[in-house]
Amino acid sequence: MRSKLILIAAVGLSLPVPARAEAEKTVLRAQRDLYGFQAQQALVYEKDRLVFSRNSNFLCAPADEVLLGVFHAAYNPNRASEKALLEQITARLPATAPGADVQAGSLSPHDLKLFVGAHEVTSEQPNSLTVRRLLTTACDDVQAKARDWHADFGVVVRREHGKGGDRLRITELAGAGRGHTWLVSFKKAGCRQSDAGSWSCPVAKYGMVSFAVK
Predict the structure, then answer these.
(1) Number of folded domains that form the chain
(2) In-domain check, residue 131
(3) Is residue 32 part of a domain?
């Protein structure tokens, strides 16, 4: 495989994500605790392609259609310039000892954490806004330009309204099950509504999706 992947387990749900940054890679990652679930989104700038992975759309605006999984695309001019910028940022970061990365159990509820490789970038650091901007703009890029991205592992989850109430329509995007679609009600999926009215729904093996208030 072109990228080594590991499984990040959280409350019975897991998502393959890049294991570490090697010499030719730069990894950006965001994570947050959501009801005991470790939500993650990452961008991996490899030598000749960009890899996007997430097990939640927590960093993106809630939508009625959400992609979860691992996807890759060829570089476009904008992304190529981002890679050069990140290589400069990475070169200025202090070395981080192996194993010094923050573990899921140490996260405070709803506390957003940003990383470049194994190094945590706090809000006080000058590069934090750049890291967050790159991760959040990837949301629209992947969703709006889905044809440019190829799924290595993933699903598209859609919210539907029916006589029996809201439900999830889940379609596999890769592997032997590609194109397979199934339906599950909000109730059966274990969806929960926040005080603000938005919904969060677990998707077995893939993570958790958030939907806007209707």
Answers:
(1) 1
(2) yes
(3) yes
Q: What are 139-174's pLDDT values in tens digits?
A: 888 877 777 889 999 999 999 988 889 999 999 999
Strand stretches in 59-122, DSSP E: 65-74, 113-116, 119-121
Question: Could you report the per-residue pLDDT of 31-41, keeping only the tens digit for each?
Answer: 998 878 899 99
> What sections of the chain are H helices per DSSP?
77-92, 128-144, 186-189
Structural domain harbouring 11:
5-152
pTM tops 0.85, yes or no:
no
Q: Is 56 helix (H, G, I), strand (E, B) or coil?
A: strand
Do 164 and 185 meet the contact criterion of CB atoms below 8 Å apart?
A: yes
Any domain includes 130: yes
What is the distance between the alpha carbons of residues 178 and 109, in angstroms, rounded to a whole number?
A: 35
55 in any annotated domain: yes
- Please state, in angstroms and as integers, the Cα–Cα distance from residue 166 to each residue in 35, 157, 188, following that order: 21, 13, 11
From CA 53, how far away is CA 43, in angstroms rounded?
7
Contact present, 3 and 16 (Cβ < 8 Å): no
Say how far apart CA 59 and CA 32 lie, in whole Å: 9
* Radius of gyration, alpha carbons of the chain: 17
